[in-house]
């Protein structure tokens, strides 16, 4: 429950403080006095966007504070989840700075805006003037029906089941598309692997073949050169080996005469040994040489095959071999993909069956809730001056979409909120057929219908404070008194704050505040006062008679207060 509201430096408000109580609290005042500013300030504490435009001229910052008591369990849980202390009382403070800095305090601790947004909806429900027009949008009818039937939890679970169903369908479609693409590529992949493996590639083979091709291509020249070298070095009449063989003994004899030749003899003896070894190697190499034109042809063919593959795949041999391994992995994945397809199909079918079963059960529950809502709404609006009203909830099945066959069964299409598109139908006059409420209800009828719906829906919830902003728009006279009594009935279980222009509603309040605008020293000030009994009489007289308060209007106002009996004077 909202106990106190303090506002500093917001628009034309310098400082105001409201003391609110349980039951019905009304706020009245002339048009333009600043009632909207009070509500906007309260909205800041519920997570609304703050702007420096709200700050009073000449001030650096605007401040709004509120004290709440008797917190609902959901709010305490949200506070604890946000790391804030959850006590029996809650103090919220928001500071909007002209410099652009916004500070939020929850029970004295700095907190982010998300905390206000998370708990605000559980503290106060604001029903504004514009909200009655949401009845003209049929998409709001489903939420109201679910709220009346207490079906929000089941609707939320259906949304989760639908998301799981849609996600399973997406995964299945993606896998099918992937498998279709891979199936088309399978022949290509298999041919690619077979071609590369048949080639028997080796990373160093190309260089080795190039070397071998040079040898085979010049084998005859190599053979002749080796044989000529053998003759020159060893076999001919003037072979180098023979010449050295004759020279070395002679030099050895000369070295005995002069030791200075000894070193030369040693070197020549070593050279003779190396010459013998070199001649042996040349002879052995020549013996192994052979010229086979078919071998050269085979080498050329093999090199041509390697070059063809490197040009085709635009990669060296090492990368081509790696490509073959990747292609094998893709082929293996294609085989496991079929198994995965069976698994995902089973998961999809289970998620689909679960979502459809939940949707059908929720649809039947909504049908039952619609019957209850019809009878209760017709009773409620009777007390609001619509005694001959017929109210119905009709269900329309959504059109099937041929592009989404899994979401359509028996001509009904499943969505996140089920298979139903309920719409409220309405006839204010006996004998007339009901027609879509959005098309036939007047502004005053919409206001009363919404109040009736809210009284049925909101009183079932745990939101402690309900704020009605000029719910009396478009009505007057006896109907206004009926609306007031309906608000008073809601106030029996909730704290109700009502901004009103109608005296019959204000007369039913237990606490009455008036918003007034004054000009002092060239500045405009908005003030808010809680009225005592005498002040209430004058304010009701103003609401009844306009700018000029007559004695007759005051007598009428006093009679209204006496007849209704304020729950708490002053």
Key structural traits:
disordered C terminus; elongated; six-stranded antiparallel beta sheet; 570 residues; alpha+beta
Model description:
With 570 residues, this protein is of the alpha+beta class. It contains 17 helices and 17 strands. The strands form four sheets. A six-stranded antiparallel β-sheet has the order 2-1-4-5-6-7, with helices on one face. The protein has a six-stranded mixed β-sheet with strand order 8-14-15-3-16-17. A hairpin with a 2-residue loop joins β16 and β17. The protein starts with a strand and ends in a 6-residue tail after the last helix.
Question: What's this, in brief?
Answer:
The protein is 56% helix and 18% strand. It is of the alpha+beta class and 570 residues long.
How do the helices and strands line up, and which of them pair or pack?
Elements: E1 2-10, E2 13-19, E3 24-28, H1 35-45, E4 61-69, H2 73-81, E5 89-97, E6 102-106, E7 109-110, H3 113-123, E8 124-127, H4 139-149, H5 152-199, H6 205-217, H7 219-235, H8 240-257, H9 262-288, H10 293-313, H11 317-382, E9 390-397, E10 408-409, E11 412-413, E12 420-427, E13 435-436, H12 437-440, H13 443-458, E14 465-469, H14 477-490, E15 495-499, H15 503-506, E16 511-520, E17 523-530, H16 533-545, H17 551-564
Parallel strand pairs: 3-15, 3-16, 8-14, 14-15
Antiparallel strand pairs: 1-2, 1-4, 4-5, 5-6, 6-7, 9-12, 10-11, 12-13, 16-17
């Amino acid at each position: 429950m909202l106990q106190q509201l303090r506002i500093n430096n917001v628009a034309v408000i310098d400082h105001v403080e409201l003391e609110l109580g349980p039951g019905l609290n009304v706020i009245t005042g002339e048009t333009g006095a600043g009632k909207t500013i009070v509500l906007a300030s309260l909205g800041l504490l519920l997570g609304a966007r703050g702007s420096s435009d709200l700050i009073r001229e000449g001030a650096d910052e605007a401040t709004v504070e509120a004290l709440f008591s008797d917190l609902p369990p959901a709010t305490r849980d949200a506070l604890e989840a946000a790391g804030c202390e959850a006590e029996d009382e809650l103090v919220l403070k928001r500071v909007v700075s002209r410099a652009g800095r916004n500070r939020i305090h929850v029970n004295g601790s700095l907190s982010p805006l998300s905390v206000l947004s998370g708990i605000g909806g559980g503290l106060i429900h604001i029903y504004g003037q514009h909200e009655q027009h949401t009845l003209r949008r049929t998409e709001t009818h489903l939420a109201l029906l679910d709220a009346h039937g207490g079906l929000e939890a089941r609707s939320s679970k259906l949304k989760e089941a639908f998301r799981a169903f849609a996600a399973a369908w997406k995964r299945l479609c993606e896998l099918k598309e992937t498998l279709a693409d891979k199936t088309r590529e399978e022949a290509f992949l298999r041919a690619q692997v077979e071609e590369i493996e048949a080639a028997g590639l080796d990373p160093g083979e190309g260089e080795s073949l190039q070397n071998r091709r040079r040898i085979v291509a010049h084998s005859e020249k190599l053979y002749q050169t080796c044989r000529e070298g053998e003759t020159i070095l060893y076999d001919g009449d003037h072979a180098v080996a023979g010449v050295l063989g004759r020279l070395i003994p002679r030099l050895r004899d000369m070295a005995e005469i002069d030791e200075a030749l000894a070193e030369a003899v040693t070197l020549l003896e070593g050279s003779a040994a190396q010459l013998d070894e070199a001649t042996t190697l040349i002879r052995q190499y020549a013996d192994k040489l052979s010229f086979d034109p078919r071998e050269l042809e085979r080498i050329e063919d093999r090199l041509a095959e390697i070059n063809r593959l490197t040009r085709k795949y635009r990669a060296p041999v090492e990368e081509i071999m790696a490509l073959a391994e990747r292609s094998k992995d893709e082929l293996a994945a294609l085989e496991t993909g079929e198994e995965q397809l069976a698994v995902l199909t089973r998961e999809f079918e289970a998620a689909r069956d679960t979502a459809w079963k939940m949707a059908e059960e929720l649809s039947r529950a909504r049908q039952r809730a619609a019957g209850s809502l019809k009878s209760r709404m017709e009773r409620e609006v009777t007390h609001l001056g619509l005694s001959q009203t017929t109210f119905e909830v009709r269900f329309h099945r959504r059109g099937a979409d041929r592009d989404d066959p899994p979401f359509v069964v028996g001509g009904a299409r499943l969505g996140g909120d089920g298979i139903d598109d309920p719409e409220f139908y309405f006839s204010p006059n006996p004998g007339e057929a009901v027609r879509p409420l959005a098309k036939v209800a007047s502004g005053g009828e919409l206001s009363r219908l919404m109040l009736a719906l809210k009284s049925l829906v909101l009183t079932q919830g745990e939101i402690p404070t309900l704020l009605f902003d000029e719910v009396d728009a478009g009505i007057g006279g006896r109907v206004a008194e009926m609306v007031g009594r309906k608000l008073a009935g809601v106030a029996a279980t909730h704290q109700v704050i009502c901004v009103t222009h109608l005296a019959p509603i204000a007369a039913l309040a237990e606490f009455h505040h008036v918003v007034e605008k004054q000009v002092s020293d060239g500045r405009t000030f908005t003030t808010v006062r809680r009225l005592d009994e005498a002040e209430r009489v004058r304010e009701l007289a103003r609401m009844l008679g306009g700018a000029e308060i007559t004695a007759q209007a005051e007598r009428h106002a006093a009679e209204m207060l006496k007849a209704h009996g304020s729950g708490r004077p002053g």
